[in-house]
Amino acid sequence: MQWASRRGFSLPIAAMREAMEHLWEDEILARSEERDRRPTIDELNRILDAAAANKRQKIPLAKIIVFAIYSCRRLGEICRLRWEDLRVEKQEILVRDMKHPKKKKGNDVWCSLTDEAMAIILSMPRDGEFIFPFKAASVGTAWRRHRDSLEIEDLRFHDLRHEGITRLFEMGMAAAFVAKHSGHKNGGCLYRYEHVEQEGDKLAGWRWTLRAAGCVDSA
Questions:
Q1: How far apart, in whole angstroms, are the C-alpha atoms of residue 212 and residue 3?
Q2: 158 falls within a domain
Q3: Global pTM?
Q4: Which of 77, 91, 106, 211 is the least crowded, having the fewest Cβ atoms under 10 Å away?
Q5: Which domain holds residue 65?
Q6: Where are the alpha helices (DSSP H) in 28-174?
Q7: What is the rounded CA–CA span in Å between residue 56 and residue 29?
């Protein structure tokens, strides 16, 4: 943009700023940032109810949102998961090109799946190579549309991963157990999740757990 401005080119600054905001939020661009924003059950229910009510939307947004929490996965990782990388008997999946501070590609990590995450995967139709055959950018746009229409502030899709990891610690799981689900190689990276302020399963009895797995009607 600086190069172009010095040469007299007219640039759509507003569009560029909006594009950058979406790139950061979808983690196409990323930097180390500690956030403590967690969704409330009410916020999740409102977003999920709105997503389920949108009959024109082809992306199963509600299912992907719930999966993001229970799998502790980033949006880009979810949309890259492949059927061939799923080990049902071991309840684990290969997460390809997992985000790494030094490796951009080739950081493939086997991660454990919670019972809830596995149930959601098995509820998906095997229509192709990918379990969730949708573009991450399109999912991110759908997420923001529902979030913004409900006037829910400062909640990013990536906060769902934070919610999932924190939930495991609140349930009393050890760091080594959590790391197998989150994909963290360095246990020190989990320090900010370990100091929980409450105990128990925040999502116990949550109606969307079964709905996302297709066990009950989500209408």
A1: 48
A2: yes
A3: 0.81
A4: 106
A5: 38-212
A6: 41-53, 61-71, 75-78, 115-122, 136-149, 159-170
A7: 30
Residue 86 within a domain: yes
Residue 186 has pLDDT above 70, yes or no: no
Q: What are the Cα distances from residue 213, in Å, to 33, 64, 73? A: 32, 10, 17
Is residue 59 within 8 A of residue 134, CB to CB? The reply is yes
Single-letter amino acid code for the residue at 102: K
Bridge partners of 110? 94
pLDDT at 168: 94
Dist CA 33 CA 36 (whole Å): 10
111 phi, psi to nearest 5 deg: -125, 145
16, part of any domain: no
Number of structural domains found in the chain: 1
Contact 92, 112 (CB under 8 A): yes
- CA distance to 160, 162, 170, per residue, from 74 (Å): 8, 10, 20
Which tens digit of pLDDT belongs to each residue from 17-48? 888 877 777 666 655 556 788 999 999 999 99
Report if residue 18 sits inside a domain: no
Q: Is 44 in contact with 67 (CB distance < 8 Å)?
A: no
